[in-house]
Amino acid sequence: MKLWKLGILFCASPVALSAWAAPFAYVPNERSGTISVIDTASDEVVATVRTGGKPRGSAASPDGRRLYVSDQTSGALLIVDLAKRELSGRIPIGKSPEGVGVSRDGAWLAVAVEENNSVALVRTANPGEAFSIAVHGKNPEHAVFSPDGKWLYVSAEDGAAVDVIDVAKRSAAKLVKVGERPRGIGFLPDGSRAYVAAENSDQVYVVDCARAEVVSVIPAGKRSNGIAVRPDGKVVFVSNGGDASVSAIDVASGRITATIPAGQRPWNMAITPDGKKLYVANGRSNSVSVIDAEAMTKLRDVVVGELPWGVVIR
Predict the structure, then answer these.
(1) What domains lie within the chain, and their CATH numbers?
(2) From CA 189, how far away is CA 285, in angstroms rounded?
(3) Whole-number Å distance between alpha carbons of 199 and 216
């Protein structure tokens, strides 16, 4: 573990705060250097936030005031004011940051830093203070907190395992072996299980979080990568990048019960708080597929910017 001090830059703006109806889906567009804002009531793009660079991973603060977005170009974590829908600051992180996670209490941010083969833990109350923790896999991609905030699971593109980080100790606690090229990670609401998509294995690995061990493996579609968990904990969705589809896993049986068409290269996803709609970023279609998460049917595709990386709903 390495502690370092970060400078944080804030951007002043004369625009007054506005109250926006929720929820909205925020979509970082890596090639466009923008974030598309989709009103989930109408499923239309209602605003575009210009970030510049290559925005990728993102996470919203629990209070809904800020969106944290990694920018590969500048090696920084961008801060977006969600009321004003504009950049309000940036935190230098390291070369090629990607996945971003925020603890449920909002105390910590986690950022996977590819070129450093590490994960950065940033204290939100004091963004100038951060810890760098080395991980085993190369090119870490996702950093996801467990629901209780005690653990951080980190996947890496060049590897076949997930690092389990003890957040309190700020150190690696265990390595969980999964399939080749682990990508998306999602926890059941009670924190008992984590689901890890392994892209090169076309499988989803189910991890018992109490033991940090794989307890089952579920065959998925081609190049499985993104994971989203329905809030009721009964269904886990996995995007299949090579099949242009999303599969629904029934948690009770551990089997895929539906496969829904999406756009080209479906990637990272998010589900509305009521569990009714799933939003899927389609990297090669420059769109977001909206899926009925109960009827398991695609409702529509929403055109966004170029190379959408993922979705955050807040």
Answers:
(1) 24-313 (2.130.10.10)
(2) 31
(3) 16
User: Six-digit token pair at 41?
Assistant: 């009531």
User: One digit per residue, pLDDT tens: the chain, 314 residues?
Assistant: 554 544 444 443 333 333 445 699 999 999 999 999 999 999 999 999 999 999 999 999 999 999 999 999 999 999 999 999 999 999 999 999 999 999 999 999 999 999 999 999 999 988 778 899 999 989 999 999 999 999 999 999 999 999 999 999 999 999 999 999 999 999 999 999 999 999 999 999 999 999 999 999 999 999 999 999 999 999 999 999 999 999 999 999 999 999 999 999 999 999 999 999 999 999 999 999 999 999 999 999 999 999 999 999 99
Token pair of 231, please? 């809030």
Alpha helices in 97-238 (DSSP H): none
The widest CA-to-CA distance across the chain, in whole angstroms, is 54
Give the start-end residues of each E strand in 135-198.
138-145, 151-158, 161-166, 171-177, 182-187, 193-198
The pTM assigned to this predicted structure is: 0.93
Collect all residues with Cβ–Cβ distance below 8 Å to 150 and sequence separation of at least 6: 166, 167, 168
- Amino acid (1-letter code) at residue 162: V
